[in-house]
Protein backbone atom coordinates (compact mmCIF):
# COMPACT_ATOMS: atom_id res chain seq x y z
CA UNK A 1 0.00 0.00 0.00
CA UNK A 2 2.87 2.39 0.83
CA UNK A 3 4.39 1.87 -2.62
CA UNK A 4 0.99 2.56 -4.22
CA UNK A 5 0.64 5.91 -2.48
CA UNK A 6 4.25 6.78 -3.37
CA UNK A 7 3.53 6.07 -7.02
CA UNK A 8 0.36 8.22 -6.94
CA UNK A 9 2.26 11.08 -5.27
CA UNK A 10 5.00 10.98 -7.89
CA UNK A 11 2.44 10.90 -10.68
CA UNK A 12 0.60 13.93 -9.27
CA UNK A 13 3.87 15.88 -8.89
CA UNK A 14 4.87 15.15 -12.47
CA UNK A 15 1.51 16.47 -13.77
CA UNK A 16 1.11 19.48 -11.51
CA UNK A 17 1.23 22.95 -12.98
CA UNK A 18 3.95 25.26 -11.74
CA UNK A 19 6.69 27.66 -12.56
CA UNK A 20 7.63 27.54 -16.23
CA UNK A 21 10.57 29.97 -16.42
CA UNK A 22 12.79 31.94 -14.05
CA UNK A 23 15.20 34.50 -15.52
CA UNK A 24 17.50 36.28 -13.07
CA UNK A 25 20.03 37.57 -15.65
CA UNK A 26 22.84 35.78 -13.87
CA UNK A 27 25.37 35.32 -16.69
CA UNK A 28 28.70 36.21 -15.11
CA UNK A 29 30.62 39.45 -14.76
CA UNK A 30 31.05 40.45 -18.42
CA UNK A 31 28.63 43.08 -19.69
CA UNK A 32 27.42 43.03 -23.28
CA UNK A 33 24.79 41.95 -25.79
CA UNK A 34 22.17 39.91 -23.89
CA UNK A 35 21.82 37.32 -26.65
CA UNK A 36 25.54 36.58 -26.51
CA UNK A 37 25.89 36.83 -22.72
CA UNK A 38 23.01 34.38 -22.21
CA UNK A 39 24.52 31.85 -24.61
CA UNK A 40 21.46 32.04 -26.84
CA UNK A 41 18.86 31.64 -24.07
CA UNK A 42 17.60 35.04 -25.24
CA UNK A 43 17.24 35.11 -29.03
CA UNK A 44 16.76 38.05 -31.38
CA UNK A 45 13.49 37.89 -33.34
CA UNK A 46 13.39 41.37 -34.83
CA UNK A 47 15.79 44.21 -35.59
CA UNK A 48 19.56 44.13 -35.29
CA UNK A 49 20.68 47.56 -34.10
CA UNK A 50 20.77 48.60 -30.42
CA UNK A 51 21.11 45.18 -28.77
CA UNK A 52 19.43 44.68 -25.41
CA UNK A 53 22.31 44.87 -22.92
CA UNK A 54 23.22 42.48 -20.13
CA UNK A 55 24.62 44.29 -17.07
CA UNK A 56 26.36 42.05 -14.53
CA UNK A 57 25.54 44.12 -11.45
CA UNK A 58 23.46 45.22 -9.62
CA UNK A 59 20.21 43.25 -9.62
CA UNK A 60 16.79 44.76 -9.02
CA UNK A 61 15.18 43.94 -5.69
CA UNK A 62 11.80 43.73 -3.99
CA UNK A 63 11.38 42.23 -0.53
CA UNK A 64 9.69 38.84 -0.62
CA UNK A 65 9.87 38.37 -4.39
CA UNK A 66 11.66 35.05 -5.04
CA UNK A 67 13.60 36.38 -8.05
CA UNK A 68 14.89 39.43 -6.19
CA UNK A 69 18.55 40.35 -5.80
CA UNK A 70 20.02 37.58 -7.95
CA UNK A 71 22.63 38.18 -10.65
CA UNK A 72 22.45 41.34 -12.73
CA UNK A 73 19.79 42.88 -14.98
CA UNK A 74 19.03 43.78 -18.60
CA UNK A 75 19.11 47.37 -19.82
CA UNK A 76 16.82 48.61 -22.61
CA UNK A 77 17.36 51.98 -24.29
CA UNK A 78 17.32 51.40 -28.06
CA UNK A 79 14.83 51.40 -30.92
CA UNK A 80 15.57 48.25 -32.92
CA UNK A 81 16.42 44.84 -31.49
CA UNK A 82 13.68 42.69 -29.94
CA UNK A 83 14.55 39.49 -28.04
CA UNK A 84 12.66 36.59 -26.54
CA UNK A 85 13.21 33.60 -24.28
CA UNK A 86 11.16 30.55 -25.24
CA UNK A 87 9.63 27.77 -23.17
CA UNK A 88 7.34 24.80 -23.74
CA UNK A 89 4.06 26.15 -25.07
CA UNK A 90 1.09 26.56 -22.70
CA UNK A 91 -2.34 26.23 -24.33
CA UNK A 92 -4.75 25.99 -21.37
CA UNK A 93 -5.51 27.70 -18.10
CA UNK A 94 -3.98 31.09 -17.30
CA UNK A 95 -0.40 32.05 -18.12
CA UNK A 96 1.26 34.54 -15.78
CA UNK A 97 4.35 36.61 -16.49
CA UNK A 98 6.17 38.91 -14.09
CA UNK A 99 9.19 41.19 -14.06
CA UNK A 100 10.86 43.79 -11.90
CA UNK A 101 11.14 46.99 -13.96
CA UNK A 102 12.64 50.39 -13.27
CA UNK A 103 11.84 53.15 -15.79
CA UNK A 104 14.14 56.17 -16.09
CA UNK A 105 12.42 57.84 -19.05
CA UNK A 106 9.16 57.33 -20.91
CA UNK A 107 7.66 58.61 -24.14
CA UNK A 108 4.17 59.09 -25.52
CA UNK A 109 3.36 55.40 -25.24
CA UNK A 110 4.30 52.01 -26.66
CA UNK A 111 4.58 48.40 -25.51
CA UNK A 112 7.90 46.94 -24.31
CA UNK A 113 7.16 43.52 -22.79
CA UNK A 114 4.90 40.74 -24.09
CA UNK A 115 4.13 37.07 -24.60
CA UNK A 116 4.91 35.42 -27.94
CA UNK A 117 2.48 33.20 -29.78
CA UNK A 118 2.84 31.42 -33.11
CA UNK A 119 3.32 34.17 -35.68
CA UNK A 120 2.65 37.06 -33.33
CA UNK A 121 2.31 38.58 -29.87
CA UNK A 122 -0.29 38.96 -27.13
CA UNK A 123 -0.58 40.45 -23.63
CA UNK A 124 1.62 43.42 -24.52
CA UNK A 125 2.64 45.64 -21.60
CA UNK A 126 3.34 49.31 -22.29
CA UNK A 127 3.92 52.64 -20.58
CA UNK A 128 3.41 56.32 -21.32
CA UNK A 129 4.05 59.73 -19.79
CA UNK A 130 1.03 60.75 -17.73
CA UNK A 131 1.51 64.41 -18.69
CA UNK A 132 2.93 65.41 -15.29
CA UNK A 133 6.25 63.60 -15.26
CA UNK A 134 4.82 60.31 -14.01
CA UNK A 135 4.11 56.97 -15.67
CA UNK A 136 0.93 55.14 -16.58
CA UNK A 137 1.06 51.45 -17.47
CA UNK A 138 -1.17 49.80 -20.07
CA UNK A 139 -1.92 46.46 -21.71
CA UNK A 140 -3.07 45.36 -25.14
CA UNK A 141 -3.91 42.04 -26.77
CA UNK A 142 -4.45 41.72 -30.52
CA UNK A 143 -4.78 45.37 -31.51
CA UNK A 144 -2.14 48.08 -31.43
CA UNK A 145 -4.09 50.13 -28.87
CA UNK A 146 -2.93 50.00 -25.26
CA UNK A 147 -5.57 50.30 -22.56
CA UNK A 148 -3.94 52.38 -19.82
CA UNK A 149 -4.66 52.41 -16.12
CA UNK A 150 -5.41 55.66 -14.31
CA UNK A 151 -2.75 55.41 -11.56
CA UNK A 152 0.41 57.51 -11.94
CA UNK A 153 3.66 55.83 -10.98
CA UNK A 154 7.12 57.33 -10.43
CA UNK A 155 10.22 57.15 -12.60
CA UNK A 156 13.43 55.62 -11.20
CA UNK A 157 11.38 53.32 -8.96
CA UNK A 158 11.28 49.52 -9.08
CA UNK A 159 7.84 48.00 -9.61
CA UNK A 160 6.73 44.39 -10.00
CA UNK A 161 4.61 43.98 -13.12
CA UNK A 162 2.44 40.87 -13.22
CA UNK A 163 0.53 40.26 -16.44
CA UNK A 164 -1.63 37.30 -17.42
CA UNK A 165 -3.48 35.72 -20.33
CA UNK A 166 -6.49 33.44 -19.78
CA UNK A 167 -6.59 31.02 -22.71
CA UNK A 168 -10.32 30.26 -22.63
CA UNK A 169 -11.53 33.88 -22.44
CA UNK A 170 -8.73 35.87 -24.10
CA UNK A 171 -8.60 38.25 -21.11
CA UNK A 172 -5.26 39.88 -20.31
CA UNK A 173 -4.77 41.61 -16.96
CA UNK A 174 -1.95 43.82 -15.66
CA UNK A 175 -1.09 44.39 -12.00
CA UNK A 176 1.50 46.99 -10.96
CA UNK A 177 2.83 46.21 -7.48
CA UNK A 178 5.04 48.12 -5.08
CA UNK A 179 5.15 45.11 -2.74
CA UNK A 180 4.63 41.37 -3.05
CA UNK A 181 1.12 40.13 -2.32
CA UNK A 182 0.36 36.47 -1.70
CA UNK A 183 -3.01 36.52 -3.47
CA UNK A 184 -4.01 38.02 -6.78
CA UNK A 185 -5.75 41.40 -6.28
CA UNK A 186 -9.40 41.44 -7.31
CA UNK A 187 -8.96 44.55 -9.45
CA UNK A 188 -6.08 44.79 -11.95
CA UNK A 189 -4.52 48.11 -12.89
CA UNK A 190 -5.92 47.60 -16.39
CA UNK A 191 -7.41 44.84 -18.53
CA UNK A 192 -8.00 44.01 -22.18
CA UNK A 193 -9.63 41.17 -24.13
CA UNK A 194 -8.44 39.54 -27.34
CA UNK A 195 -8.51 36.22 -29.16
CA UNK A 196 -8.96 32.99 -27.24
CA UNK A 197 -7.13 29.69 -27.57
CA UNK A 198 -3.61 31.10 -27.99
CA UNK A 199 -0.58 28.95 -27.13
CA UNK A 200 1.98 31.01 -25.20
CA UNK A 201 5.53 29.92 -26.04
CA UNK A 202 7.92 32.78 -25.12
CA UNK A 203 8.31 36.01 -23.21
CA UNK A 204 9.85 38.95 -25.06
CA UNK A 205 11.48 42.35 -24.52
CA UNK A 206 10.76 44.95 -27.21
CA UNK A 207 12.60 48.07 -28.34
CA UNK A 208 10.97 50.72 -30.53
CA UNK A 209 10.13 54.40 -30.67
CA UNK A 210 8.38 55.91 -27.65
CA UNK A 211 9.14 52.93 -25.41
CA UNK A 212 10.56 53.67 -21.97
CA UNK A 213 14.22 53.52 -21.11
CA UNK A 214 14.25 50.88 -18.41
CA UNK A 215 16.00 48.12 -16.47
CA UNK A 216 14.42 44.69 -16.16
CA UNK A 217 15.15 41.75 -13.87
CA UNK A 218 13.48 38.82 -12.13
CA UNK A 219 11.43 37.61 -15.08
CA UNK A 220 9.16 34.69 -14.26
CA UNK A 221 6.52 32.69 -16.15
CA UNK A 222 4.11 30.41 -14.33
CA UNK A 223 0.60 28.96 -14.44
CA UNK A 224 -0.62 30.44 -11.18
CA UNK A 225 -0.23 33.58 -9.07
CA UNK A 226 1.18 31.46 -6.27
CA UNK A 227 4.02 30.20 -8.48
CA UNK A 228 4.90 33.79 -9.41
CA UNK A 229 5.13 34.85 -5.79
CA UNK A 230 6.66 31.68 -4.34
CA UNK A 231 9.32 29.25 -5.31
CA UNK A 232 7.85 25.84 -6.04
CA UNK A 233 8.54 22.88 -3.75
CA UNK A 234 8.03 20.43 -6.64
CA UNK A 235 11.28 18.99 -8.07
CA UNK A 236 11.76 20.31 -11.59
CA UNK A 237 14.23 20.76 -14.39
CA UNK A 238 14.93 23.75 -16.67
CA UNK A 239 17.06 23.96 -19.82
CA UNK A 240 18.89 27.29 -19.81
CA UNK A 241 20.79 27.05 -23.11
CA UNK A 242 20.57 26.73 -26.00
CA UNK A 243 17.25 28.30 -26.90
CA UNK A 244 14.88 25.94 -28.66
CA UNK A 245 15.48 25.83 -32.43
CA UNK A 246 18.70 27.84 -32.04
CA UNK A 247 20.83 28.06 -35.18
CA UNK A 248 24.61 28.10 -34.67
CA UNK A 249 27.22 29.48 -37.03
CA UNK A 250 29.14 27.20 -39.38
CA UNK A 251 32.33 25.95 -37.74
CA UNK A 252 30.67 25.37 -34.35
CA UNK A 253 32.32 22.17 -33.12
CA UNK A 254 30.41 21.72 -29.86
CA UNK A 255 27.33 23.06 -28.11
CA UNK A 256 26.83 23.05 -24.35
CA UNK A 257 23.49 22.04 -22.87
CA UNK A 258 23.18 23.97 -19.62
CA UNK A 259 20.39 23.08 -17.23
CA UNK A 260 19.28 23.72 -13.68
CA UNK A 261 17.29 21.63 -11.22
CA UNK A 262 15.04 22.87 -8.46
CA UNK A 263 13.93 21.31 -5.17
CA UNK A 264 15.95 18.13 -5.46
CA UNK A 265 19.23 16.91 -3.99
CA UNK A 266 21.25 15.30 -6.77
CA UNK A 267 23.73 13.94 -4.23
CA UNK A 268 21.12 11.40 -3.10
CA UNK A 269 21.36 8.03 -4.83
CA UNK A 270 18.68 7.64 -7.49
CA UNK A 271 18.35 11.41 -7.99
CA UNK A 272 20.05 12.33 -11.27
CA UNK A 273 19.82 13.90 -14.73
CA UNK A 274 19.98 11.82 -17.91
CA UNK A 275 20.52 13.17 -21.43
CA UNK A 276 19.70 11.53 -24.75
CA UNK A 277 20.86 13.05 -28.05
CA UNK A 278 18.80 11.91 -31.03
CA UNK A 279 18.95 8.08 -31.27
CA UNK A 280 22.20 7.77 -29.34
CA UNK A 281 22.33 5.78 -26.09
CA UNK A 282 21.26 7.70 -23.00
CA UNK A 283 24.08 9.26 -20.99
CA UNK A 284 23.13 8.80 -17.33
CA UNK A 285 23.84 10.93 -14.28
CA UNK A 286 25.32 13.92 -16.10
CA UNK A 287 26.13 17.41 -14.85
CA UNK A 288 25.72 20.86 -16.39
CA UNK A 289 27.08 21.96 -18.80
CA UNK A 290 26.82 18.88 -21.02
CA UNK A 291 28.83 19.21 -24.23
CA UNK A 292 27.61 17.82 -27.55
CA UNK A 293 30.04 17.46 -30.47
CA UNK A 294 28.56 19.06 -33.59
CA UNK A 295 29.29 19.53 -37.28
CA UNK A 296 28.16 21.90 -40.02
CA UNK A 297 24.70 21.01 -41.29
CA UNK A 298 23.87 18.92 -38.21
CA UNK A 299 20.38 18.90 -36.67
CA UNK A 300 20.16 17.80 -33.04
CA UNK A 301 17.32 16.84 -30.74
CA UNK A 302 18.10 16.60 -27.02
CA UNK A 303 15.97 15.07 -24.25
CA UNK A 304 16.86 15.92 -20.64
CA UNK A 305 15.25 13.86 -17.86
CA UNK A 306 15.17 14.47 -14.12
CA UNK A 307 14.95 11.31 -11.99
CA UNK A 308 13.97 11.06 -8.34
CA UNK A 309 14.35 7.65 -6.70
CA UNK A 310 15.20 6.34 -10.21
CA UNK A 311 11.79 7.45 -11.53
CA UNK A 312 11.51 10.13 -14.24
CA UNK A 313 9.61 13.06 -12.76
CA UNK A 314 10.35 15.85 -15.28
CA UNK A 315 11.39 15.90 -18.93
CA UNK A 316 12.48 18.80 -21.11
CA UNK A 317 13.51 18.79 -24.76
CA UNK A 318 15.43 21.18 -26.95
CA UNK A 319 16.35 21.18 -30.63
CA UNK A 320 19.12 23.09 -32.37
CA UNK A 321 21.12 22.99 -35.58
CA UNK A 322 24.43 24.12 -37.03
CA UNK A 323 24.39 25.95 -40.35
CA UNK A 324 26.18 24.92 -43.48
CA UNK A 325 28.13 27.58 -45.34
CA UNK A 326 27.05 27.82 -48.98
CA UNK A 327 29.54 28.82 -51.66
CA UNK A 328 28.45 31.58 -54.05
CA UNK A 329 30.44 32.98 -56.95
CA UNK A 330 29.10 36.53 -57.01
CA UNK A 331 26.85 39.00 -55.21
CA UNK A 332 23.91 38.17 -57.49
CA UNK A 333 23.97 34.61 -56.16
CA UNK A 334 24.42 35.92 -52.62
CA UNK A 335 21.38 38.19 -52.91
CA UNK A 336 19.33 35.20 -54.06
CA UNK A 337 20.19 33.34 -50.83
CA UNK A 338 17.97 32.63 -47.83
CA UNK A 339 17.75 35.13 -44.99
CA UNK A 340 19.59 33.69 -41.99
CA UNK A 341 21.74 31.45 -44.19
CA UNK A 342 25.55 31.51 -44.17
CA UNK A 343 27.51 32.07 -47.36
CA UNK A 344 31.05 32.45 -48.65
CA UNK A 345 31.54 34.89 -51.53
CA UNK A 346 34.26 33.40 -53.75
CA UNK A 347 34.38 36.17 -56.34
CA UNK A 348 36.01 39.54 -55.72
CA UNK A 349 33.84 42.40 -54.49
CA UNK A 350 34.96 46.03 -54.49
CA UNK A 351 34.34 48.50 -51.66
CA UNK A 352 32.45 51.53 -52.99
CA UNK A 353 31.91 53.32 -49.67
CA UNK A 354 32.74 52.92 -45.96
CA UNK A 355 30.37 54.41 -43.37
CA UNK A 356 32.39 56.09 -40.63
CA UNK A 357 29.76 58.01 -38.66
CA UNK A 358 28.38 55.01 -36.70
CA UNK A 359 29.79 51.99 -34.89
CA UNK A 360 28.31 49.38 -37.22
CA UNK A 361 31.43 49.18 -39.43
CA UNK A 362 29.24 49.25 -42.53
CA UNK A 363 30.75 48.89 -45.99
CA UNK A 364 29.05 48.96 -49.36
CA UNK A 365 30.48 46.39 -51.77
CA UNK A 366 29.68 45.50 -55.36
CA UNK A 367 30.85 43.47 -58.32
CA UNK A 368 29.96 43.75 -61.99
CA UNK A 369 26.29 42.92 -61.54
CA UNK A 370 25.09 43.59 -57.97
CA UNK A 371 25.84 45.17 -54.60
CA UNK A 372 25.19 44.50 -50.92
CA UNK A 373 25.71 46.28 -47.60
CA UNK A 374 28.10 44.74 -45.05
CA UNK A 375 26.79 45.29 -41.51
CA UNK A 376 29.64 44.47 -39.11
CA UNK A 377 28.63 45.59 -35.63
CA UNK A 378 31.00 43.07 -34.04
CA UNK A 379 33.99 44.42 -36.00
CA UNK A 380 34.76 40.99 -37.46
CA UNK A 381 36.52 42.51 -40.47
CA UNK A 382 39.49 43.88 -38.57
CA UNK A 383 41.95 43.88 -41.48
CA UNK A 384 42.62 47.40 -42.87
CA UNK A 385 40.28 48.03 -45.81
CA UNK A 386 39.69 51.17 -47.86
CA UNK A 387 37.36 52.43 -50.56
CA UNK A 388 38.47 50.89 -53.86
CA UNK A 389 39.85 47.74 -52.21
CA UNK A 390 38.80 44.30 -53.34
CA UNK A 391 37.73 41.47 -51.01
CA UNK A 392 37.79 37.75 -51.79
CA UNK A 393 36.45 34.93 -49.60
CA UNK A 394 34.04 37.02 -47.52
CA UNK A 395 32.01 34.79 -45.16
CA UNK A 396 28.89 35.72 -43.27
CA UNK A 397 25.14 35.56 -42.70
CA UNK A 398 22.48 37.09 -44.91
CA UNK A 399 20.07 39.40 -43.08
CA UNK A 400 17.71 42.25 -43.84
CA UNK A 401 16.75 45.58 -42.27
CA UNK A 402 14.15 47.98 -43.62
CA UNK A 403 14.06 45.97 -46.83
CA UNK A 404 17.82 46.33 -47.44
CA UNK A 405 19.74 43.07 -47.75
CA UNK A 406 22.75 42.98 -45.45
CA UNK A 407 25.71 40.64 -45.05
CA UNK A 408 26.95 40.14 -41.49
CA UNK A 409 30.56 38.85 -41.53
CA UNK A 410 31.29 35.70 -39.52
CA UNK A 411 35.04 35.55 -40.23
CA UNK A 412 37.85 38.01 -40.92
CA UNK A 413 39.63 38.31 -44.26
CA UNK A 414 43.44 38.48 -44.66
CA UNK A 415 43.21 41.93 -46.20
CA UNK A 416 42.53 43.55 -49.55
CA UNK A 417 42.77 41.27 -52.58
CA UNK A 418 43.42 44.36 -54.75
CA UNK A 419 43.63 48.11 -54.20
CA UNK A 420 42.97 51.35 -56.03
CA UNK A 421 40.01 50.07 -58.06
CA UNK A 422 37.74 52.63 -59.71
CA UNK A 423 33.99 52.02 -59.67
CA UNK A 424 31.97 53.79 -62.36
CA UNK A 425 28.40 54.61 -61.36
CA UNK A 426 25.52 53.06 -63.26
CA UNK A 427 23.41 55.55 -65.19
CA UNK A 428 19.83 55.41 -63.92
CA UNK A 429 16.75 57.53 -64.59
CA UNK A 430 14.45 58.60 -61.76
CA UNK A 431 11.72 56.35 -63.11
CA UNK A 432 14.07 53.38 -63.38
CA UNK A 433 15.20 53.77 -59.77
CA UNK A 434 11.66 54.22 -58.46
CA UNK A 435 10.30 51.17 -60.31
CA UNK A 436 13.29 48.81 -60.46
CA UNK A 437 15.30 49.89 -57.42
CA UNK A 438 16.09 46.37 -56.22
CA UNK A 439 18.50 45.99 -59.14
CA UNK A 440 20.47 49.01 -57.92
CA UNK A 441 20.40 48.42 -54.15
CA UNK A 442 23.81 49.08 -52.56
CA UNK A 443 25.42 49.85 -55.94
CA UNK A 444 27.02 53.12 -56.99
CA UNK A 445 24.58 54.83 -59.35
CA UNK A 446 24.10 58.16 -61.11
CA UNK A 447 20.50 59.40 -61.24
CA UNK A 448 20.23 61.55 -64.31
CA UNK A 449 18.93 65.06 -64.77
CA UNK A 450 16.64 65.68 -61.81
CA UNK A 451 15.49 68.76 -59.90
CA UNK A 452 15.05 69.18 -56.14
CA UNK A 453 11.69 70.42 -54.89
CA UNK A 454 13.30 71.72 -51.68
CA UNK A 455 15.44 74.79 -51.13
CA UNK A 456 17.94 75.66 -48.42
CA UNK A 457 20.79 73.50 -47.10
CA UNK A 458 21.24 69.72 -47.10
CA UNK A 459 20.62 68.22 -43.63
CA UNK A 460 21.50 64.82 -42.25
CA UNK A 461 18.88 62.03 -42.11
CA UNK A 462 16.58 63.88 -44.50
CA UNK A 463 14.62 62.76 -47.56
CA UNK A 464 14.38 65.01 -50.62
CA UNK A 465 11.97 64.43 -53.48
CA UNK A 466 13.59 64.86 -56.88
CA UNK A 467 11.80 65.00 -60.23
CA UNK A 468 13.06 64.45 -63.76
CA UNK A 469 13.90 67.85 -65.22
CA UNK A 470 10.97 68.91 -67.34
CA UNK A 471 9.04 65.73 -66.50
CA UNK A 472 6.96 64.03 -63.84
CA UNK A 473 9.03 60.99 -62.80
CA UNK A 474 10.11 61.22 -59.16
CA UNK A 475 12.33 59.37 -56.76
CA UNK A 476 13.90 59.99 -53.33
CA UNK A 477 17.32 61.42 -52.53
CA UNK A 478 18.20 60.66 -48.90
CA UNK A 479 21.10 62.29 -47.07
CA UNK A 480 22.34 59.58 -44.70
CA UNK A 481 26.04 60.15 -44.08
CA UNK A 482 26.18 62.99 -41.58
CA UNK A 483 29.96 63.29 -41.30
CA UNK A 484 30.55 64.05 -44.98
CA UNK A 485 30.92 67.49 -46.60
CA UNK A 486 27.50 67.36 -48.26
CA UNK A 487 25.85 68.44 -44.99
CA UNK A 488 25.24 72.19 -44.95
CA UNK A 489 25.80 72.75 -48.68
CA UNK A 490 23.17 74.49 -50.78
CA UNK A 491 20.44 72.45 -52.45
CA UNK A 492 20.79 73.27 -56.16
CA UNK A 493 18.08 75.24 -57.89
CA UNK A 494 19.14 73.90 -61.31
CA UNK A 495 18.92 70.37 -62.73
CA UNK A 496 21.58 67.98 -61.47
CA UNK A 497 22.80 64.41 -61.62
CA UNK A 498 22.95 62.68 -58.23
CA UNK A 499 25.73 60.17 -57.68
CA UNK A 500 25.26 57.87 -54.72
CA UNK A 501 24.42 54.41 -53.43
CA UNK A 502 21.16 52.70 -54.26
CA UNK A 503 19.11 52.50 -51.09
CA UNK A 504 15.73 51.33 -49.85
CA UNK A 505 13.49 51.86 -46.86
CA UNK A 506 10.53 49.51 -46.61
CA UNK A 507 9.92 49.37 -50.34
CA UNK A 508 10.74 52.99 -51.20
CA UNK A 509 13.89 53.15 -53.31
CA UNK A 510 16.38 55.96 -52.81
CA UNK A 511 19.73 57.30 -53.88
CA UNK A 512 22.17 58.05 -51.05
CA UNK A 513 24.73 60.70 -52.03
CA UNK A 514 27.99 60.70 -50.08
CA UNK A 515 29.85 63.94 -50.81
CA UNK A 516 29.10 67.48 -52.00
CA UNK A 517 30.63 66.49 -55.35
CA UNK A 518 27.96 63.79 -55.73
CA UNK A 519 25.44 66.54 -56.54
CA UNK A 520 26.69 67.28 -60.07
CA UNK A 521 25.15 70.28 -61.80
CA UNK A 522 27.80 70.54 -64.53
CA UNK A 523 26.31 67.93 -66.86
CA UNK A 524 22.85 69.44 -66.85
CA UNK A 525 23.49 73.18 -66.55
CA UNK A 526 21.42 75.30 -68.95
CA UNK A 527 19.64 72.28 -70.33
CA UNK A 528 18.35 72.38 -73.86
CA UNK A 529 14.66 73.13 -74.10
CA UNK A 530 12.65 70.41 -75.78
CA UNK A 531 12.25 72.57 -78.88
CA UNK A 532 16.02 73.18 -79.17
CA UNK A 533 17.13 69.64 -79.94
CA UNK A 534 15.81 66.26 -80.95
CA UNK A 535 17.31 62.75 -81.16
CA UNK A 536 15.72 60.21 -83.51
CA UNK A 537 14.89 57.48 -84.20
CA UNK A 538 14.72 56.36 -80.57
CA UNK A 539 14.56 53.39 -80.17
CA UNK A 540 17.14 53.08 -82.93
CA UNK A 541 17.17 50.14 -85.36
CA UNK A 542 19.82 51.19 -87.89
CA UNK A 543 23.44 52.29 -87.91
CA UNK A 544 22.89 56.01 -87.34
CA UNK A 545 20.72 58.42 -85.40
CA UNK A 546 20.09 62.12 -85.94
CA UNK A 547 20.75 64.69 -83.22
CA UNK A 548 19.42 68.05 -84.34
CA UNK A 549 19.37 71.42 -82.59
CA UNK A 550 17.91 74.83 -83.39
CA UNK A 551 21.35 76.29 -84.12
CA UNK A 552 22.42 73.25 -86.18
CA UNK A 553 26.01 73.81 -84.98
CA UNK A 554 28.53 71.11 -84.24
CA UNK A 555 27.95 69.21 -81.01
CA UNK A 556 30.18 67.27 -78.66
CA UNK A 557 28.63 63.87 -77.99
CA UNK A 558 29.58 61.27 -75.41
CA UNK A 559 27.72 57.96 -75.17
CA UNK A 560 27.87 55.83 -72.02
CA UNK A 561 26.78 52.27 -71.41
CA UNK A 562 24.36 51.64 -68.56
CA UNK A 563 27.43 50.57 -66.54
CA UNK A 564 28.88 54.07 -66.93
CA UNK A 565 31.57 53.14 -69.45
CA UNK A 566 32.16 55.71 -72.20
CA UNK A 567 31.73 54.00 -75.59
CA UNK A 568 31.63 57.02 -77.94
CA UNK A 569 33.32 60.45 -77.68
CA UNK A 570 33.01 62.48 -80.84
CA UNK A 571 31.95 65.76 -82.47
CA UNK A 572 29.08 65.77 -84.98
CA UNK A 573 26.79 68.14 -86.77
CA UNK A 574 23.65 66.05 -87.03
CA UNK A 575 24.45 62.37 -87.61
CA UNK A 576 25.87 59.97 -84.99
CA UNK A 577 27.24 56.59 -86.09
CA UNK A 578 26.11 53.86 -83.70
CA UNK A 579 26.98 50.87 -85.88
CA UNK A 580 29.49 49.51 -83.36
CA UNK A 581 27.05 49.55 -80.43
CA UNK A 582 25.19 46.43 -79.37
CA UNK A 583 21.51 46.33 -78.51
CA UNK A 584 20.77 47.85 -75.13
CA UNK A 585 20.25 51.07 -73.19
CA UNK A 586 22.74 53.95 -73.37
CA UNK A 587 23.03 57.48 -72.00
CA UNK A 588 23.89 60.23 -74.46
CA UNK A 589 25.46 63.50 -73.26
CA UNK A 590 25.22 66.35 -75.76
CA UNK A 591 27.06 69.68 -75.44
CA UNK A 592 26.34 72.59 -77.75
CA UNK A 593 27.35 76.25 -77.27
CA UNK A 594 28.23 75.60 -73.63
CA UNK A 595 24.88 73.96 -72.91
CA UNK A 596 24.68 70.29 -71.93
CA UNK A 597 21.97 67.71 -71.51
CA UNK A 598 21.62 63.93 -71.20
CA UNK A 599 19.10 61.60 -72.80
CA UNK A 600 18.45 57.88 -72.77
CA UNK A 601 18.97 56.02 -76.06
CA UNK A 602 17.58 52.54 -76.75
CA UNK A 603 19.19 50.48 -79.51
CA UNK A 604 17.27 47.44 -80.75
Find the CATH topology of the largest domain.
Answer: Jelly Rolls
Task: Give the low-pLDDT segments.
Answer: 1-17, 524-531
Largest sheet: 9 strands, antiparallel
Round the mean pLDDT to the nearest integer and report it: 89
Can you give the helix content as a percent range?
under 10%
Would you give an account of this structure?
By secondary structure, this protein is mainly beta. The chain is built from five helices and 45 strands. The chain has five domains: 217 residues, Jelly Rolls, CATH 2.60.120.200; 85 residues, Immunoglobulin-like, CATH 2.60.40.10; 85 residues, Beta Barrel (OB fold (Dihydrolipoamide Acetyltransferase, E2P)); 95 residues, Beta Barrel (OB fold (Dihydrolipoamide Acetyltransferase, E2P)); 71 residues, Immunoglobulin-like (Sandwich). Strands 1, 2, 4, 5, 7, 12, 13, 14 and 16 form a nine-stranded antiparallel beta sheet that branches. Strands 24-25-30-31-28-27-26-29 form an eight-stranded mixed beta sheet. Strand 32, helix 5 and strand 33 form a beta-alpha-beta unit. The longest helix has 14 residues. The N and C termini lie far apart (95 Å). The relative contact order is 0.08. The N terminus is likely disordered.
Amino acid sequence: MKNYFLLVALLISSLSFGQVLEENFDYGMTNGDLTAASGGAWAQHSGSADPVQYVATPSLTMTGYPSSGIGGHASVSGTSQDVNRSFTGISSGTVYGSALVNLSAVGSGNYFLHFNIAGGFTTRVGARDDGSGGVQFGIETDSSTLVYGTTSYALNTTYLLVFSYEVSTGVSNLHVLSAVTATEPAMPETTNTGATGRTISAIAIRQSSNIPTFLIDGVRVAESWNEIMNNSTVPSLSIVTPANNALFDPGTSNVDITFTTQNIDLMVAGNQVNITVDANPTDADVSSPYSITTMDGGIYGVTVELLENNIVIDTKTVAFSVSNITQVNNITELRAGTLGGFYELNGEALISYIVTENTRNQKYIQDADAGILIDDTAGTLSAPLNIGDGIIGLQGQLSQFGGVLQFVPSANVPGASSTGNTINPLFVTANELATNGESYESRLIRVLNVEFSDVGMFADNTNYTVTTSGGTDTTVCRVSFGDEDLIGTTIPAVPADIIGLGGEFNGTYQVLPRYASDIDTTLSTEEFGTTEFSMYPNPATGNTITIASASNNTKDVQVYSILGKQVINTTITNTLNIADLQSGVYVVKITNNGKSTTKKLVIK
